Amino acid sequence: MTENYTTNENKQLELLTDLYEFTMAQAYFQSEMFAPATFSLFIRDYPPNRGYFISAGLESVLDYLEQVHYTEDDLDYLASTGLFSDDFLHFLGNLRFSGDVHAIPEGRLFFKDEPIVEVTAPIIEGQLMESFVINAINLQVTLATKVSRCVHAARGRNVVDFSLRRTQGIDAGLKLARAGYIAGLAGTSNVLAGKIYRIPVSGTMAHSFITSFKEETDAFRAYAAAFGDETVLLIDTYDTVTGAEKAIEVAREMRQNGRRLKGVRLDSGDMTQLSKQVRKLMDEAGFADVKIFVSGGFDEFKISDSLANGAAIDAFGVGTKMGVSADSPYTDIAYKLVQYDGRPVLKLSSGKKTLVAEKQVFRIKDHRRLVNDIISVRDDEAEGEILLKPVMKDGRRLQPPEALTDIRQRFEGEFSRLGDDVKAIENPAEFMVEISPELEKLQDKVVHRVIEKELGES
Fold first, then answer.
1. Residue 385, SS3?
2. 3-class SS at 87?
3. What does the DSSP assignment read for 392-429?
4. Where are the beta strands (DSSP E) in 156-312?
5. Residue in 442, 452, 433, 1 with CA at minimum distance from that of residue 199
6. What is the pLDDT of residue 351?
7. 101-113 per-position pLDDT tens digit
8. 95, pLDDT greater than 90
9. Which residue, of 84, 183, 208, 433, has the fewest CB within 10 Å?
C-alpha cells in the first residue's frame, strides 16, 4: 500500500533530482542519443559490521517510475535557470518512463557488488531516474538491514519501532516502519505508518502522563481504568523498584476486578539489573505473566549485551539508534551505466570499477542454507535460483504491489537459511559471491578495449 499523505514540499517529486541529471539529459538530446541504456544499481562494499543487505524500497521506485512526468510548473522552473533550450523542455513535457526494470524482490537478501535493480530505457529516461532510485533504495535497504540486526539480537523477543520523533524527517519515519516490518519488527509507534501500511501499532505512555498526576499510583490507576487488559505501566519516572511495587499494587486491584496487568516498561538506568529486580518482585507477588518491556538507547549491540548478561526482558522498544541506523547511516550505493545501444560499458576508476552489461544473479542453496551467489550476464543459463526478476515492462508494472506480510515471510524464510557467521552482530563472515566465467570473459574484453581506445595502450 502506498503513501497517501502530502505536504507542500512533496506533492510532486519529478524535480527531486540532481541538476546534472538534467544537464546530461539535454546534452544527450542535442546529440540525438535516444538508444536503450541499462543502468545497474549496486552497493560497492559493506558498512562496518554488516555481512548482508535486505532488498527494500522497490515499491517506492516502481510507484515513481509509473507516474513520473514534468508539469508546466516544473518546465517553467527549469526554464528560469537559463540552462535549458526550449526544444529540450518541450521534449521533457512529453516524457514518460517507458523502460523495463529487473530487480531483486523486496525481502530477499543480497550482497555487495550484486545488482539490486537494473533499469533499461532510452538513455535520457534512465539517466533522469538515477537520483530518486538511489535515494529510495539506499534509505530502505539501510533501515531494513539495521532492523534485522536488532531483531536477530533479540533472540525471538519482540522489537517495536519507537523511532519516529528522531528519524530524519517524515518520509524516513514512515519508511523505517515499512522496511522494519519487512525485517521483523513486531509493530510501530507510528500511527500514520500503521494506517498506510497496515502495520500493528504499539505504545504505552510518556513520563509526562505520570508527572501530571499528584501521585504515581494515581497515574497508574487512571491508565488501567482506561485500557484494562492492555495496560502497560511506565515505572521508572521516580524510582524503578518503587514504581514496580506500585504497579504490583495496581495489578492486585485490577485482578480483584477481573482484569490483568499486561506489562511494565523501563526506560532508564541499568536495564539488565533493573529488569532482574522487577522480574523477581513480580514473580514473588504472583504476577509471573506480567511482561517487562524496555526502551531507551537500545540497538543490536545493547540488546545483545543485555541478554548475554541475563536480562529479564520480554520485549524491546527501539528508537533513535535503529531509526537513523546510527552506527552506519548510509551505504556506498551506485547507479552506473553498464550498457548503451547494445555496447557493454564500464568505469575503471580506482576503487570504483563497475561490472559490464545486463546481469543476473544466481543463488545456490541446499535444503538448509544459502551456499553462494554467482553474478553473470543476463542471458546465462547457469544453475541456481534467479534473483533479478522482471518487474516492469514498457513503463508499467508486471504485478500489483505485494502485501507486506508476504514480503516479510519471504525475508523470514531466507534469513533463516543464512549462516550465523554472516548474521553476526560484530565482525561477520563474508558470504561467497562469485563472478561467472561468462561475465569475467566479457569484462576482460571490454577492459582491454577501453585501455586500448581510451588510454592508448595496447
1. strand
2. helix
3. EETTEESSPPPPHHHHHHHHHHHHTTS-HHHH-SSSPP
4. 158-161, 187-188, 232-234, 263-266, 291-295
5. 1
6. 79
7. 999 999 999 999 9
8. yes
9. 208
Domain ranges of the chain: 19-143+329-454, 150-323
Q: Count Cβ atoms within 10 A of the Cβ of residue 355 and give its class: 0-12 exposed, 13-18 middle, 19 or more buried.
A: buried
Which residues have a Cβ under 8 Å from the Cβ of 7 and sit 6 or more positions away?
A: 170
pLDDT score for 456: 74
Beta bridge partners of 336: 40
**For 150-323, CATH number?**
3.20.20.70
Q: Is 434 helix (H, G, I), strand (E, B) or coil?
A: strand
Number of residues written out for the chain: 458
Q: Do residues 332 and 45 touch, judged by C-beta distance below 8 A?
A: yes
Model pLDDT for residues 174-213, shown as the tens digit of each residue: 999 999 999 999 999 999 999 999 999 999 999 999 999 9
Q: Given this structure, which CATH class describes domain 19-143+329-454?
A: alpha beta
C-alpha cell of 198?
A: 497496515
Alpha helices, H only, 94-233: 123-128, 130-153, 170-182, 191-197, 207-211, 216-227
pLDDT confidence of residue 458: 58
